[in-house]
Design goal:
alpha/beta, eight-stranded mixed sheet, seven-stranded mixed sheet, 19 strands, Alkaline_phosphatase_core_sf, Membrane protein, Phosphodiest/P_Trfase
Amino acid sequence: MLRSALITFVVVTLTLWLMPGVASADIVDTLSLVVLVAVTGAVLRPLLLLGVTALGGWGAMLFGVVAQVAVMVVALDLDPANRISGLPTLVIAAILAVIFAALLDWMVDAGSDDMFVREARRLMRGVRRRAARRAGGPLFTTRRPRPGTEPGLLVVQLDGVAEPVLRWAVRAGNLPVLGQWLRSGSHTVRRWHTGLPSTTPASQAGILHGASRQIPAFRWFEKDSGKVLVANRPRDAAVIERRLSDGRGLLRDGGVSIGNAFGGDAATNLLTVSHAALPGRSARGWAAFMASPYGFTRALVLGVAEVFTELHQARLQRRRNLLPRVSRSGAYLALRPAAMLLRDVNVSLVAEQMARGVPVIYCDLVDYDEVAHHAGPARPESMRQLESLDRMLGVLERLSPEAARRYHLVVLSDHGQSQGATFRQRHGETLDEVVQRLTAETAAAPREPAEEQGKREPDPVPEAAPLLVLSSGNLSLIYLTRCPHRVLRAEIEKTYPRLIAGLAAHPGIGLVVVGDDQGPIAFGPGGSHRLRDGEVSGQDPLLPYGRQARADLLRHQEAAHVGDLVVISSVDPETAEVAAFEELVGSHGGLGGWQTDAMLVHPAAWTVTVDLDGPDAVHRQLVEWLVMLGLRDEVRPGVTAGDAIHAADLDRNSSPRLSPTREG
């Protein structure tokens, strides 16, 4: 109360000083106005929260800002000294006061999340008390709800954080929360291999649904429908999820998906791309965040400051001639504050679901990935975002005593990132221009990165373009659009005799994979590797990509709608840098560098029984932990060839079937 009164006093004094024509500076009048603001807020905010809750979605966002301004307008209008009059002037003064309050709160809270935690605790206690009343408890009580005892699982995904980056940040002391977990022995960290493609949609398809082979890249072309699918476009994500889902996803049986690409068969989906809707009236965490002075309004004001921070950091890179670098203007200026806002909203939604006592929650936090794409995965700007995510883990840890279950926390990433100057920066041309030069045909390609393309309406495939080049980081899929089938090597060489050899010889390209009658072949600048039997001719092109490259490429060739040609850029053997086909200094999607080195942080006492090779393996391990916690019925292992089948092995409640969505 003292802090709130002091901040309000400073805010009101500063606002009145800035308003023209306001001469009174009487301290008693100002103190009375502080009391009036507090009383007005105490009366109006609960009513405004009801309005925000009733609106839900976009209405809650708009009304949340209006609510903060409305409190100040009413308080200033009731001021006995009558220093400000007229509705336009009152509104301007109120807006100034709200902005000053957000900035002052931020300065007081710098390095601390105390106010955010207090607001979240208030939300959680309210949720639990309402649940207790519905269950027959007392209508009013001041008693604090007891911590839950039944187990629950909270999985937090730190998007794009490579395992080596995490270890380095912990050793440097920059991640105090994760560092304390690891040093105390309560948790352990291990690497898991993402395989190909190393993208969020493929990894989440595997982690949440166990079906990563349905996704060959971040974006791809489907010859049967003639459409380009982009996995973060809501309409496309909904189509993809229908293919992934078989009702046995990670979040079935009452789980909640927050901020993910797909739902994992969750009972509740909040800010999930495939469901394309903002949280509605039932999500009190959304309404509480929007209505709170420490929620949306504060994030909006600080988001503007984040834009100026980004402009300053980009200018520093240019002045120091820091290489590699890419442009950090345009749509990216809005991405940074949006990611920050989304992080705070997601944590508020997680807090609400913890109070509701849902059995399993999976939440994706994207701050680090967004910044690392444009600044570089190990640059100071990116590491600051990682530090802020570490603080959010600390917030969740502090909120756990208010939860209706005893939540065990697992932290993982979906992929890493690899740094490097882009393909165009190194060689003065884009990949589609190289294809066009080698074929003398038109090669179409989107100009923006895949993750930005999904934010607008789909592009029609140009009828005059017989070749389509779709890139995701340093992975590119090339389609011969006039052929309705997957085109093999012989047909490609007959149609475009220079294409395969020309791509393989390009200094910026490390691998060109093409189907053949005897299985897929990977071509490089000095040789080839037959993937099925491992036969190498000349210099093995897979050597720079590590020992798992052959298995990764073989699995990728089995993915649905994979390109007629799969191209991966070269990797520097000294620096492990790759050349993204998109204009991103930090990239992922293909092979090379740290982009396939994801991390998994879990309670040290939990046994890992699965070889963590690929996101489907992570899915199986998480399901095993759910079974261990009693949150899922034990899944009987499949019967292998030669084993006897016993009646007890059969599930009498289900009929055998082949899943068309998972097996094609």
